Amino acid sequence: MTGHIEPIVGRYVHVAIDGEMHRIYFEESGAGIPLVCLHTAGSDGRQWRHLLADEEFSKQFRIIAFDMPWHGKSNPPASWTGEEYRLTTARYTATIRAFCRALGLEKPVVMGCSIGGRIVLNLAIDHAREFRALIGLEAADFQAPWYDTSWLHRPDVHGGEVCAALVSGLIAPQSPDVSRRETLWAYMQGGPGVFKGDLYFYRVDGDLRGRMGKIDTGLCPLYLLTGEYDFSCSPEDTRRTAASIDGANVTIMEQLGHFPMSENPGQFRRYIAPVLSEILEQSMISTKQGAHV
Amino acid sequence: MSALQENACLKRMTPSPDACDAAVIKAFAGIPGLLEQTPALVARGRALDCECLLGPHDHPFHASIRGGRIVDLTPAPVLMRSWRFSYRATSAAWSAYWEPAPRPGWHDLLALTKREEACLEGDLYPFMTHLQYFKDVLALPRRHGSAVPA
Predict the structure, then answer these.
(1) Which residues in chain A have their CB less than 8 angstroms from residue B113's CB?
(2) pLDDT per residue over A153-207, tens digit each?
(3) Mean pLDDT to the nearest integer, B50-67
(4) Of A151, A166, A173, which is closest to B107 when you measure between CB atoms?
(5) Long-range contacts for B32-37 (Cβ within 8 Å, ≥24 apart)?
(6) Residue of B nearest to A170 (CA)
(7) Domain containing residue A121
(8) Looking at the complex, does the CB of residue B110 fall below 8 Å from at least one CB of chain A?
(9) What residues of B are in contact with residue A172 (Cβ under 8 Å)?
């Protein structure tokens, strides 16, 4: 055998979400503290492949990225008969918690980007005790809409082309062309109406304004990192959100946009490495004190 | 379009010096030629036939696109000439958009509309069905290093 085989392993786990079984595809690598990664709206877990393949991080973390139902290799559930897909706050939260339970993850770290960053805030509000730390990339309690999502799903417009073209502007101009194309390729492959359905959570159902004061970072540390070129969830959106959260750690990432982990993995690594180091250090201290197993 | 909408669209637009306006108009006039040198981009617009109004807000051009080529680019106004959609931005916005590494918030056509430095109006169907095409066509002066004072 001469081909290079990556350390990433992909499998399916059967997960009951709101009483219905879902076949969820996930990829993982490494061993140690569970680190569950949430992809952006309309994309899938491939966005995390560079983090999953990181030799240093995988020595200390069991890095896991799963495809949400309707995304990537996680099909819609058997009960779906073609009705419009709409992600809600409750459904998204239930999916993440059910996935973590199904894998038996104990106090995982959850890192989500975009809609994943938004739901991380909801996890911090309602379920902080279940998590070791929470990381929101491109996260805010709300952000102003900048286009009409009806363009994303109509029979006379190519969904893949318009989804990719819309989000292409959220990638920093400094990001390598090959990574830009790969990031957009996932958007070109999404199922019809799935990106739009995810944005129902982002735009309509998941407005968390006024709830940030409920976050207790003493129960679960919260890190917020936002790319300077993200004009959808802008640095100002993240700073405004963090201003209502005592103890939130905010980092504005230079030369990155809305998809830091996939649009420029090397640049993103510079920012996420110290966060993961800090979580690891805190976890070791807590283990010595008997707080975590 | 109503006066109210016009005002809402323009409220944050950045004024620019005359030299900038002239340079942006000149750079804009060069876009059809740059497009001809980019056959892959022409090919992406192969299904596009459209009349549109593009350019600096106060000095836009009527563009006639046929099969992805800009076959005519004429300074507006032209008596009774219609257009399907328009994308107009301040000269400051165009010069910022064409910088080799544009600043955050000035790097994308829809970032410019969000920050109210540009207006997108009319029937958006041809624009949205060819969104990446228009982003790339209107970025051609960046790629070709057209000198436009900021």
Answers:
(1) 146
(2) 999 999 999 999 999 999 999 999 999 999 999 999 999 999 999 999 999 999 9
(3) 97
(4) A173
(5) B32/B69, B32/B70, B32/B71, B32/B73, B34/B140, B34/B141, B34/B143, B34/B144, B35/B69, B35/B70, B35/B137, B35/B140, B36/B69
(6) B108
(7) 9-289
(8) yes
(9) 104, 107
Q: Determine the residue of chain A that is closest to B128 in CA distance.
A: A162
For chain A, what is the domain count? 1
CATH of the domain at A49: 3.40.50.1820
A127 in a domain, yes or no?
yes
Domain ranges of chain B: 16-141
How would residue A288 be classed by pLDDT, with cut points 50, 70 and 90?
confident
Position A46 in a domain:
yes
**Residues ≥6 apart with Cβ < 8 Å to A78:** A20, A21
Instruction: pLDDT band for B145, please (50, 70, 90 cuts).
Output: low
Q: Which CATH superfamily is domain B16-141 in?
A: SCP2 sterol-binding domain (3.30.1050.10)
Residues in CB range of B111: below 8 A, 6 or more apart: A169, A231, B105
- Cα nearest neighbour of A253 on chain B: B104
Q: Is residue A60 part of a domain?
A: yes
- Identify all chain B residues contacting A169, using CB atoms and an 8 Å cutoff: 107-111, 135
What pLDDT, on a 0 to 100 scale, did the predictor assign at position A293?
44
CA-based nearest distance A165→chain B, Å: 5
- Count CB pairs under 8 A between chains A and B: 52
% of chain B at pLDDT higher than 90: 81
Q: Is B101 within 8 Å of chain A by CB? A: yes
With respect to residue A129, please indicate whether it lies within any of the assigned structural domains.
Answer: yes
- Residues from A in contact with B at Cβ < 8 Å: 144, 146-147, 151, 156-158, 161-162, 164-166, 168-170, 172-174, 228-229, 231, 234
